[in-house]
Amino acid sequence: MTSASAMTAPTIYQNFIGGEWRDSASGTTFLDTNPARDSDVIGAFQRSTVEDLDAAISAAQKAFPAWRATPAPERGEIILRAALLLEQHREELAKLLTREMGKVLKEARGDLQTAIDFGKFVAAAGRKAEGATVPSAIRDKMCLTLREPLGVVGIITPWNFPIAIPAWKTFPALVAGNTVILKPASDTPLLALKLVEILNEAGLPPGVLNFITGPGGTLGDALASDPRVSMISLTGSTEVGQHVAEICGRDLRRVTLELGGKNAVIVMDDANLDEAAAAVAWAGFGTTGQRCTATSRVIVHRKVVDAFNERLVALAQKQKLGDGLDPAVDMGPLVNRGRVKAVDEYIDIGKGEGAKLITGGGPARGGELDAGAFFQPTVFTDVTPDMRIAREEIFGPVIAVIPVDSYDEAIKVANSTEYGLSCAIFTEDMRTAFRAMHDIQSGLVYLNAGTTGAEPHLPFGGVKHSGNGHRELGESAVDEWSEVKTVFISYPKV
Question: 15-259+467-485 maps to which CATH number?
Answer without folding.
Answer: 3.40.605.10
